[in-house]
Every structure is written in C-alpha cells, then in structure tokens.
Write a structure and sequence with these properties.
Structural class: mainly beta
CATH topology: Immunoglobulin-like
Helix content: under 10%
Distance between the termini: 31 Å
Number of strands: 5
CATH architecture: Sandwich
Number of domains: 1
Strand order of the largest sheet: 1-2-5
Length: 107
Amino acid sequence: MEVTRVSSTINAGSILLIGESAHQVTFNLNAWAHALGASISGTNLWRVVLFTNTQIDGKGQIGAQSDAILFNGDESRSLLAGQQLFITSAQAQLNLQQLSCEQVSVN
C-alpha cells in the first residue's frame, strides 16, 4: 500500500486563537492509493493526526497535535490499489495554549 496524495477540508471549528486551550475541528480527509500498490482491508487501519506546523507543506516544526476521532467505521475502511479513500467528519481538539504565532503557518 502506498498513499500518493492526501487532501483535507475543514468542515467546522472555532477560530484558532493562539493561547487558547480548546479548539474543536471537524474535517474530511481524502487519500489516494498508488495504482501499482497493494490493496488493504481489515480493522483499525487508519490513524489520523491533526497538527499545526511552521510550514504549509508540513515539513517544519510541529506545534500542537491531536489524534482525530473517526466515525462511521472510517478507521476500518478498505482501500483498493488506484482508488480513493474518503474519511468524513473526523474530529480533533487542538490546544494552542503554549504556542506563539511563529509556530503556526496560516494560509
């Protein structure tokens, strides 16, 4: 299994404010599998972590992070080679209390 691309869309959440401790974020996630890779099926296949980063591409310093809660059996959803995985309405809570503005990229 090789995931070649991931995209996300935020559905709901409060305005993220540095120095605040509780920011609930709800989001969708799409992942594409390489056409020549293997397919996977089973249980507890997916773990999603929501995090802040100093760079928009995620290659910078990680600030806050939180495991997302997955619903509707999304954690055990199969992914076939060359197909797309849809995870909907995942939820995570970010604590930005200890961060500065420089530790979070905003775009």
